[in-house]
Queue: 3 jobs
Job 1
Amino acid sequence: MSVVGIDLGAYTCYEAVARDGGIETVANEYSDRCTPAYVSLTNKQRFIGVSAKQQNVTNFKNTISSFKRLIGRRYNDAHVQREKQFVPYAITEGPHGSTDILVQYMGEQQRFSPEQIVAMLLTKMKETGEAALKTKVVDVVVSVPSFYTDRERRAMLDACQISGLNCLRLMNDTTAVALAYGIYKKDLPEPNDKPRHVVFVDMGYTSLQICAVAFNKGKLKMLGVSSDPYLGGRDFDRFLVEHFAEDFKKRYNIDALSKPKALLRLATECEKLKKLMSANTQSIPLNIECFMDDKDVSGRMDRETFEGMTSGLIKQAEVAMKRILEYTKLRPDDIYSVEIVGGASRMPCIKSMVQSIFGKEPSTTLNADEAVSRGCALQCAILSPTFRVRDFSITDCQPYSLSLRWQGGIEEDCDLELFPMFSPIPASKMLTFFKKEPFQLEARYTYPNMVPFPEALVGVFKIDKVTPQANGESSKVKVKVRTNIHGIFNVSSASMVEKGDDHQEEGAEENMETDDGPKPENSDNSLASEEDSAVESKSGESNETPMQTEPDASNPEQTNQENSTGEVKKEAVAAKKKKKTIKMIDLPVESIVPQLNRSEINLLLEKENQMIMQDKLEKERADAKNAVEEYVYEIRDKLYGDYEQYTKDSEREPLSQLLNQTEDWLYDEGEDQSRQVYIDKLASLKKLGQPISDRYKEALERPAAFEALGTALQQVRKCSAQIEQKDEKYSHLEPADVEKLNKCLKQKTDWYEKHMNLQGKTPLHEPPVVTASQIHTEKQLLDSVCNPILNKPKPKPQPPPEEKKPDPKANEVKAEDQPQSPDDKAAMDLD
C-alpha cells in the first residue's frame, strides 16, 4: 500500500510520500517539487501542471486555473461571480444551475465541471507519485481548506473517485500543518499536564487560515479555526496590476485591462515584483518588452508604497487573526509560538501583523510550501496498516455549528443544535424520536451568516417505513447522526423499536424517551439525544437496546417481604414474572445530499480514462513525429561532416534530397499525421541513412575491438611460450590441453591477421569486411577455450604415508624367554 499526501492548492500543488523510513516531497517530470494547478486543453490532448502553465498566455481561453475555488458551488453563487474576474476562461451555467467551464477540446466546444478539472489535476499527481514510488497509487490523503463546507467536501471526494483515487481522509490544511509540526516534537508536555498552545497562520494564494492547537505528548487538539476565503497573495498582486495598468494608460496610452494576454503577462511580472519587494526595501523596477502595440513599458515600486496601497488587505488580515483569539479565549501570554506557512506569509507586512497581534516573533521552522503535503502524508501513514508511525492522536474540530430540524406536526418546526462550532470530529450522536409515520430530518448550518456559502441546508434525510405500534402508540425510532473523518455530516443508521404484546397500566402513554428523567406525556414529537465517542464503540451501541423493563421476581428482598406478609395476590405475581419482548427493526434512510451518485461517478470515470488514453496516444504520435524531425536534422548535419568520408556520392545526393523533402513535408501536410505515417516515414529515411550510420559507427568501434582481441592473443601466446619452456606454473597441464590451447591460438591468430589486413584494404565508404561485434565474438571464443586451460589449478600434492610408531610392548621379552647363559643363547640360535 502506498502512502501519499497531496496538498491540492488553488495555485500550486505538492505531493509527499513515505519512503526510506521518512516523509519525502517528490518531484515531477520537470524535477520540480511544485506542480502548478493548471490544466490546458487543446484539440488533441490535455496539458497538466508545468506544461499547462506554459500555455497560460498563448492558450489562455482553454487554460484553466483556480478551479478549486469553484468546486461544489452553483453558478449564481456570489463567490463564483467574484472568481470570474480573476480568470480568462469562460465560466457558464450548467444543468440545474451548476457551474461549468467552457473550453475547446478535441476540435469542439465542451463543458467540464470543476470536479472533472480537479480530477484531471489529481490524475497528474497520481502519475507523479507512481513514477516516484514505482508502484500503483490508490490510497491518498488530500488537503482541503478548513473553511470548506459540507457540499464542497463532498465534491472533492467525487473528484477523487473520478481520478481513481481512494481518499482515506480529507484533511484540513491547518490540521495537516499542525500534525507536521507536532509529531516530531519530543519536548511536548505530558498528557495530564497543561497543553502547549501553538497558533498556525497559513496565507496562501487565495485564502488565509489561522488555527490554535493544543499539544500534549502524543496528541493534538484543534481548539478553533479562523479564516478569510477572500484574502490571499493574488489579492495583493491585483493591487499591483491595477496600479501599473493605470500608470501605463497614462504614460503609454495603452489599456492593459482590455487585453487578456497583456493582463496575464502583467500579472506574472507583478507577482515577481511582489516577491522581490519582500526581500528588498529599495525601489524595484518592472520592465516588459513588446507589452502592447509593440511598446516596451517600465515602472517602479517600493515596499513602503506597496504596503500603503494594500493597507485595507492588511487590516482584513488583522481581523481574521484577532478572531482566533476571540474564538479560543486565548491570550497572547497563553501562546507558546506562532508558526507561519504559505507562500504569501513571506510578505513582511504579514509577519509584522502576526508579531503585533500575538506578541510573538513568527517562527518559520516549517517548510512554508511543503508543510501541508507532509502532514497529509503522515496522516496517510497513520491510517495505513503497512507503516509503523509514532502514536499520535489527532482531534480535529467542526468549523461551523450544525443543527437538525424536523417537522413538528401542528406546532412549529422543531430545531436542535447537534454539533456546536469547534466540536471534535469525527463524532456521532444517537437521537430518539417517537413517530407513527415516516418523517424527514433537515441538517442545516446554525448560523448561516458565519458560513461562506449561500445555502444553509446541508442535506435532507428521509426515514422510511415507520409504523405505529400494534396498540396504536408512537414507535420509538433511534437515529444515529455522524460527522465523519472528512468533516461531512450524515445520518448513518435508523432503527425502530417494536414491542410485543405486554401488560401496561391503564392511562399510560409512551411518547418520548430521555436519559435522565421520566417520559413526558402527550408529546408526539419530542426528542432525546445522547453523545457517542468520536469512534463508535460496542458499549455505546449495547445501551441502545432496552433491557428488561419489569422488576425481576427473583429478587430475594421482595421474596422475603412477600413471605413475611403472606398477602401476595396471584395476579401480582403473574405480572411480575411477565417480560416485554423488544425487537429492533432497521429502517431505510434516503439521503438527499449534493453529491454525485454511483452511476454518474462511473460515467465521469470512464470519460477521464478515455482522456488519459487520448493523451497517451497523442504523446506517442508526437514522439513519432519528433523522431522523424530529429533524424532529419541529425543525418543532414553529419552527411557533409562526420559521415562524408563514409558515404558514396551516389548515396549522398539522393539521401540529401529525401531529407529536404521530408523537412518540407513535416511543416506542411505532415504537420498532423497519424503515428503510423511517421513510423513509415522514419523507416524510409533509415533505409538510406542507416548503412552510412553503421559504417561510421563500425569505424569508431572496430579499432578498439581489434586491439582487445590482439591483446588477448598476445597474452595467450606468452603463456604458450612458458608452457614450452616447462615453466613450473603450467607443469600440471595435460598434453591434450596444451594441444587444444595451441590449436585455438593458431586459428584465432590467423583469423585476426586475415581480417585485419582485409579491413585495412577496404575503403571507408564500402561495407566493412568484419564488424566490431564479430571481433568481440572471436575474443569470447578465445577466452572460453584458453582461460579454463590456463587457469586450471594444480592438483594438491599427496601427503606422505604416516610411519607406524613401534609398539614398545612388541620388544619386551618375558623373563622366562630371555637366555640366561651363553650356552642357552647358542642353543636358541641353533634352533
Job 2
Amino acid sequence: MKILGISAFYHDSAAAIIQDGVIVAAAQEERFSRIKNDPGFPSKAVEFCLHYSGIRLSELDAIAFYDKPFLKFERLLETYYSFAPSGLGSFLQAMPVWIKEKLFLKKILYRELGKLGPLDKRKVPLLFPEHHLSHAASAYYPSGFEDAAILTLDGVGEWATMSLCRGSGKDITILKQLDFPHSLGLLYSAFTYYCGFAVNSGEYKLMGLAPYGNRDGADCRRMVEIIKTKLVTIKEDGSIFLHQENFGYATGDRMVKDRVWQQLFGFPRRTEDGPLDQRYCDMALAVQEVTEEVVMRLARELKELTGCENLCMAGGVALNCVANGKLDSAELFKQMFIQPAAGDAGGALGAALAAQYIYFGKERRVEFPDAMHGSLLGPEYGETDILPVARKYNYPHRMFSDPAELTTATAKLIADGNIVGWFQGRSEFGPRALGARSILADARSPEMQKKLNLSIKMREGFRPFAPAVLAEEAGKYFELTSSSPYMLLVKEVKRSRQIPVPADFEGRGWADKLYLMKSDIPAVTHVDYSARIQTVDKRTNPLFWQLLRNLEAETGYGVVVNTSFNVRDEPIVNSPEDAFRCFGQTQIDYLVIGNYIFGKKEYIVQSDT
C-alpha cells in the first residue's frame, strides 16, 4: 500500500510517502524553495518523495492531507460570532480567502498534484484526518512502542489545541481534548511576540533566552504570578483557561493587546531589533516555568488515564526540549519518543500513517528503536551531483577514497579549531541538523560560541549551541540516562565538568553572563549549565559516529558542537549548490561533502586525484 501525506497552507509545508507502513521519504518544502517555513503547496517536496520512492501519482492508494479544512472554517465562524462585533475587520479580511480558495481545498490539491503527473481522482482518494490525529499518528506509529500514552500540544489545529490519547496496536483513542481559544502553544507564542520574536518560528529563541532570567529574582516571580492569575488558569489535570480579554489572536492580527500587557507587566513590547534587557529574559523564564508546569500536569493526567509506561509526543510544543528534559527526569514514564518533525511538517507523515492504520486498517509494523531512520529521510546527492557544483566554485580540495581517512582528516581539522560544514547522506526531516547537514566545531573552545553566533550563523549572541555526543559516552558528559537521538532533550552538563560562576553572577545582565567559562566543554554549555543533547548511534548514522570516534581519539572528547548548516533566516542547506553558497558566504573554514574536503586555506590542496 502506497500513501502520500501532505501538510500545507499554514506554515512549514511538507510531504511524506510510506509504502506498506515503511517511511520511505519525507521533506519540507522550504529545503527546496529556500523560503523559510514555506507555507505553499509542497510541490517540490512531493516531487522528491515520488521520485525517491519510484512511485507515480497514479500508483498511489491514497493521498492524505493533515487536517480538515471545513472544521477549521467552522471554528473561525463560531469564534468570530462569539466575539462579535470585535474582530470585524479581521473577519472581512479572512473570509474572501476562505470562500474563494480554502473551502475548495480538495480542488486545489488535485489541481496542484495534477501538475506533477496524471492522477485519477476516482482511484486515488483524498483523505482528511484531523490535525491532532495527524500529530498523534506521527509520534505513535513510528515509535517502537506497542502501547503508549500520546500527548499532542500546539497552537491550534481545527478546534483542538492539546489532546491526550492512547495508542494500542494499530489504534489511537482520543481520551481528552482542549479546544481553541485555550492553548498552551498560543500562550507561549504570545510571549514570543511580546519579547520581539516572530510567532511560529521564534519560539525556540524564547526558550534559549529563558535561562538568562533570574529565577529567584523579584521581577521573575512577579511575572509568574501575573501569568497565573491574570492570563491563564491552570487546572489540576493540566487543562488551561486563557483569559481572552488580554489576548488578541482569536479575532485580530496580533497575539496580545499590547496596552493591556504593558499595564500588567510594566514595560512595552520589544520590537524585533529593539534592545534586549533583563526584563525580557525574566519574562521568557516566567512563561517557560508555566509551560513546564502545564506539561508536567498533563503528563501526570495521561499517566493516570492510561497506566502506560511509554509516552509519545508531537505538536509544536513538543519541540520545547527544556520541558521534555524535565519530563524525562521526572520518570513518570519509562520511555519517551518525541517525533523529530513535531510541528506541522510532521503532520504530513502522520496523515499518511493515519490513513494506513486507521482508514485502511492495516496491521501495524513496529520497528526498534523507532521507524524514523534517524530522521534522515530527505534527498541525498552523489559525486555526479557534487562535482559540477565544485567545478563552478573551484575551491582547493582533496578527495578521499576511504571513509575512515575522511573522518580522520575531518576530526583533525575540528581539533585544530576549524569550523567545518558537514554534508553527508540524506538530509534531515524536521528542524534539527542531526549530522547530515551540520556545521561542526570543537566543543572545548571558549571562543567558539561567540565565533559561531556572530561570524557564521549571524544570529543573536545569547543563543546556545547543541552537542552531538557518542551515544555510549553521553553519561560521561551529561546528566543523561536515556537516549536523545533527535536533539529533543535538555539536560545538565555533568556536575564534575562544571566550573563555578562568580558570586555576583545572578545580579549581572544577560550580556555579562554570555561568555564565562562554565565547563570544560564551554561551546555547548548554556548559561544554566544545560545542553540540548544529540546522542549519535553507530547503527543510525555510522559516518557521523565514526567522526566522533576519531575526534575522541584526537582530543579525548567524543563530543562536538553541532548546529544547522545555514545562516540566520535561511532554511538548512539541502543541495550541494546550497552548501557551497553558504560555505562561500560565511567564515566556515572547510566543507566536507561526499568524499571531498574543500578548503579556503591552501595547505588542503593535497590531492589524490
Job 3
Amino acid sequence: MIKKYLVLIVLAFAIIAWRQQDSENVDWAEYLGGPDRNHYSALSQINPSNVQDLKIAWTYSLPDSGQMQANPIIINGILYSVSASVQAFALDAATGKEIWRFGDPLKNWASTSRGLAYAKDRILYTAGPNLWALDAKTGKPIESFGDHGKVDLHTGLPKIAQNKFIISNTPGTIVGDLIVMPLRLSEGADAAPGDIRAFNIYTGKIAWTFHTIPYPGEKGYETFPKDAYQNTYTGAANNWAGMSVDKKRGIIYVPTGSAGYDFWGGNRKGQNLYANCLLALHAKTGKLLWHFQMTHHDIWDRDLPAAPNLITVTRKGKRIDAVAQITKQGFVFVFDRVSGKPLFDIIENLVGKSSLPGEHPWPTQPYPVLPKPYARQSNELSPSDISPYAKNKDELASILSKLKRGWYDAPSEQGTLILPGFDGGGEWGGAGADPEKGILYINSNEMGWIQKMAKNKDVKSITGESLYQSYCANCHGADRKGNPASGYPSLVGIDQKRSKAYISQIIKQGKGMMPGFGQIESESQAAIAAYIQCLPPKEISNSSSPQVLPYQMTGYNKFLDEDGLPALSTPWGTLNAIDLNTGKYLWKIPFGQEPLLVKQGITNTGGENYGGPIITKSGLLIIAATKDATLRIYQASTGKLLASYALPFASFATPSTYMVNGKQYIVVTCGGTKLGTAKGNQVIAFGL
C-alpha cells in the first residue's frame, strides 16, 4: 500500500512538472522568449515543410500609431504588449480580441517601449518615469504597489538625479520577488547616474543598488576622477538594453553603456568602470561577482546594445555554460558564465591618441580573436569601397579619403568614419540562439556614420540659443535643419506645423527616442521653445544648464550618397550564424533590400535593420526588422530563405511565437517610422 501511494505521489509530481514544462514550451512568457534572452522556442508545429502555408490568423489595430518596438509576451492564452504611445494592453492570443488597455497616450509619453514583464499575476511596465504594477486580468493598477500602483524611477537615486531625465523602454528582469530595472538616460553631460536597482514586485520598495559610477571605497572608484559619482556633469554608465538571468545560479548579467557625455571625456579621465561592461551580479543582493569592460573610456557611444545570450557550448570536449555578449562594434565576447573567464582569447590592441586638448583616450581596446567581427571595421576600408550604385562616387571617395578611419580612432575636428556606426553592428533587437547547440544568430547593420567634433563657443550668458546648442544640436543640427536622412527631423518652420503648447510639451517630456528636458527650469525650456520658433531671444538669469564642455559632436550624420542611400559598398545589412563551440561562421548572407533599388531591379543589397530574430526547435529563423516591410523565414542551419510575407507596415520589433489550443502562431508588431517608413498600428498573428 505504501509503495502504491509513493508511486501516486511521484506520478502527481511528474504530471505537475510536465504541465509546467509544457506551459513553458507553448508560452512566450518573457521578453525575448525567456530569462536567457535566446529568442528560442521549442515549438515545432510550424516547420520547414509547411512554413510556406502560413496565413494571417488575426490582426489587431491600435487606436494610436507610430513606432512600435515591443516584443509581445504570451501567457496562458493571453498576449500582453505595449502600443506606440506606451499603452499596455492584453489580447486573446487566439483571436486578437482586446481584453483590456491601460494608459493615457497624452500623459507620460516619453519614449518607445520594447515590452513588459509578468510575475505573480501582475504586469510590470513603464510609462514615462514610472514603473507600474497592473493586475494581469483587469489591467488596473495594484494599489498596494508603491504609490497607488506606481513607483517613480528616480526613487533611490542620489539628489543630483532627482530632476533629470529618466525612463525605461526595455522590460525589467524578474528574479524571484524582485524586478531589476534598466534605465534610459540623457546622453549628454546632464545624464543621471545609471545605478542598477532591484525593486520588490509586491511593494515597489528598493531591495538593492549597484553603483555603476563607484562611490568612495568601492572597487573601480579610482577609474574616474575623484567624486565623479556626485558630479552633475558625469553620469549614465546605465543599462538600457535589458538583462539576462541564470535563475539556477542566481546570477544576473547586466550590460552597460557609456558614461556621459558620450563623445568627449576630458572631464572623466580614466578607464571609467563600470561603463561599457558586462556585469555578473548576485541577483538577490546586487553584489559584483565579475565584470569585463568592452570599451575603455568610451568616446564613441559604444553602449552594449542588447541583453547577452545564456548558452551552453562544448570546448575541448567539456560542456560549459557560457554567456555571449554582442556589441555595436561587431564583436561577440564569450565567457564562462560563473568565472567570467573568456572562452576565446581577447587581445588588448594599441589605439591612437586624441588631437583634442584635454582628451585622453585609453591606450588600448579589447579585440576578441574569435569569433571574427560580424560587421566590417573602419580600418578595413579604402576609397575604393564606395557604393557601386552611387551617382557621386568621386565626391564620396574624396570625403572618405579625408576622414580618419583607423580602428578606434579618437573623435576629431577632422572627422572620423565610425563603422560599424552608432547603431551597430548589433543593436537592441539582440541575437537569437540555439542554447544547447551553442549557435548564435545575429542581424547586423553595415552603415557608416561620420563623427565630427567642434569647439564650443565660450558662453558668457545663457540664452535659448546656447541651451539649444547644449541639448538639441547633436540631433537637430546647429542650424536647426536636422538630418532627416539619418532620422533626425528639421525644426525649421515648426511654428507653422505645431502649436506652442505641443512644442513646450515635447521639450519638457520628450517623445519617441527624444529625451525630455524636465530637469531644466521652465524658464530655460521656454527659452529653447522660443529659439526654435524664431521668437525674440531672452537671456536666462538662472539656468540649470549643464557645464559647457570644450567640444561637442556636430551631429549624428550617416555617410550617404546623394540619393540618401548608404555611401559604402554592399552589403548594407547581414544575417550571421556563428558556432560558438568553435568561434567559426556557419553562414553569412545579405539581409534586407533597399526599396529604391528594388524598383530598378537591383536586389540582394542588404539593408539597415532593427529588431531581432527568433529561433525554433523545428529549425526556423523568423525575422522582420527591415524597412521593406517583410517577414522572412529562413532555414536556421543553412540561411536558405524558405518563405516571406508582406506586412502592412515595417516591423522594427522582434517577433514572438506561441501555441494556443494546439495551434502555433507567429506574432509581429508593425509600427514603422524608422528609416523613413510610414507609421503603423497593427499586431499581426500568422498560423497554419
